[in-house]
Amino acid sequence: FVDCSYNKISSLIIPNDSTIRNIRCESNQLTSIDLAKCPNLSNINCENNLLEKLDFSNNPILAYVSCENNSLETITFAPVMSKLYAIYCSGNNLKTLDLSSLQSLTKLECYDNQIKEIDVSNTPLSDLDKEEKTSNPSTGYRFILYNYSSVYKLDFLHFNVYQSYFSFWRFFYL
Questions:
Q1: Radius of gyration for the alpha carbons in the chain, expressed in angstroms and rounded
Q2: Staple 45 to which of 18, 27, 66, 98, CB 3.0 to 4.6 Å?
Q3: 98, 77 in Cβ contact below 8 A?
Q4: Would you give the DSSP letter of residue 39?
Q5: Using an 8 Å Cβ cutoff, are 121 and 98 in contact?
């Protein structure tokens, strides 16, 4: 367990340690974080920093990510991630999200970004049809997208929305 939250640190060097399962480094001044040396990382909370990218390609058993309020432009995931069920990535500079490798994803919050494209094919979010997602809050699925820019392609309900302009778009699946 690594916890260095609320310390105003600008650099974090994580040792090569396969026993690290949880990292809490929120509310600092981090501009980057190298998670490649933590193959058994399960949970990370790195919100309220200055991060521009996150790379989880070497963290295949990651289950929970909170990276809100950074400057993230990219988030990279491993080709197969069977345990990641929740991503909170609001308040960033994300333009696209490819979540298609996240086989257990049931919670996603990504408002206050510049998202043009989201792919949640192959995730549980894509298995429900539109009517069930909008009318049955007991499913346990949650997707929230507040988008103040144009969404050019949204692939998650087995349909695509092209050139759709909304001033405020909100989906809640609780």
A1: 16
A2: 66
A3: yes
A4: T
A5: no
